[in-house]
Amino acid sequence: MVGIKTEIQLSRAQVTCAADIQQAIDALGPDGGRVMLPAFELELDRGIELRSNVILQGQGRDTVLRKAPGQVYPLSGYHNYGMLDVPLMFTDGLMPGMTVAVRDDLHGGFYETFARITWVEDGWVGLDQGLHSDYHAEVNPVLLTAFPLIYAHRSQNVRVQGLTLDGNLDAQPAGIGACRGAAVYFLHSHRVTVADVVERDFAGEGLGFQMCSEVYIRDCHFTHNTGNGYHPGAGSTAVSFENCIAEMNGAAGFFFCVRANHISVRNCTFADNAGPGISVGTRDSDNLIEGCHIHGNGGAGLLFRETRRPVEMSHCRVRGCRIQDNARAGGMGQVAILGDAHDLALEANAIVGIPGETGAGIYVAPSVTRLWLDGNNIEACFPEIVAGSASLVPSDPVIACGIDAVEEFHYRHLDRVVQSGE
User: Fold this and answer.
1) What CATH number does the domain located at 7-66+147-405 have?
2) CA angle, residues 254, 186, 321, in degrees to nearest 5
3) Interval 43-54: pLDDT, tens
4) pLDDT, tens digit, for every residue of 126-151?
5) How far apart are CA 146 and CA 359, in angstroms?
6) Where are the domains of the chain?
7) pTM assigned to the model
C-alpha cells in the first residue's frame, strides 16, 4: 500500500460497538487509509468489512475483538435461490447492518449464504446478497448470527495488523462454513496482508480465503478453532505464509484446498491439531513448504490426499522441515503421499516417529510417480520408507515452485481485481 493519505485514530469513547468501526472504515472512501483501534475489548454483533486500500490496525494483544453470542433463527418455510430476503419464524434481536449466514442440513460449501441484513419487517429479513441456494423446509433451513470477524470481498490492497480475535466458541450454537467464512476471511481479493494477528476459539476455521491473489500472512497465531487453522482455497495464487502458528485446531493445521498454487509456507509451526499438520489435495501445485516444524498432530504430519488424475497434486517441494510425533490418531506415517501425486521433492527433512510405536516415516502409494527423496533423516520410524521403485526418480523433478516462481499467466483462472495503474 503506497502512501497513507488518511488516518483515523479511534479512542475508547468513540468505539462502543462494531458499527462504529465500520463507519470509520467506510468514511475513508475509495482512496482508503488507516483505521487505528485503541487498546480495549469489544464485542462484535457483526463482521467488520474491509474496503480497498484500507488498513485496520490495533495495539496487538491489547486490542481484543470478541464475537457476540450466536443465535439461530429457523426459516418459516421454503425460500429460493437468488432472493434478497428470507422468511423467519421470529426476528428478535436482528437489525440492519448485522452479518448472518443462511444454510440447511443439505447445502454446505459455496451453497451457504453469507450476507449483511438490510431491513427487518414482519417476519422477513432483507439481505445485501442473493441466496446461494434453494432452502427447503424439510432440511431445516436456518439463519445464523455466524460471521467472519474480519473480512473483505472483491477488495484490493487491504491489511489487518496487530489484533487479537476471540471467537467466543462456548457461546456459539453453530458456525459458518469454510467456503463462506472464517474468523479472518477474504473472497475475490488481491494484495492482502495479515500480520501480527492472534486468533482463538472460532466456530469454524481460523483464516481462510477463496479465489485470492498476492496474499501475505506473517507472524500470526491461530488456535483452538473447530475447523482448519489456515485454509488457502479455490484457486488462490501467489501466497506467502511466514512465521505463523496453527495449533490445537479441530481439523488440519494448514489445508491447501482446490487449486491452491504458488504458495510458500516458511518457518511455520503446525502442532497438536486434530487432523494432519499440513494437508495437500485437489489440483494443488507449485507449492513450497520450507523450514516448518510439524509435530503432535492427530493425522500425518504431511498428507498428500487421495486425488486422481486429472485433479491430482503436483510440483511441490518440502525442504528442511522437522516432522515429528504425528499420526497420533491414525494414519500411514509421518508423511503420507497418496493418489496420483507426481513431481514432488522431499529434501533435507528430519522425520521422527513416536517412540515405541510403529509407523512409516514416509509412506508412498503405488500410484505416486516422479517422487524425489534426498537427504531426509528418518528416526524412530518402522519402516522408514514405504515406496515402490516405480514411484521414485533419481533427480529433482521440481524446477521452480512457491510464490517466487509465479508468473502473470498463472492468474488466468482468477477474476482478479487489479487497480488501474498497478
Assistant:
1) 2.160.20.10
2) 20
3) 999 999 999 999
4) 999 999 999 999 999 999 999 999 99
5) 40
6) 7-66+147-405, 72-144
7) 0.95
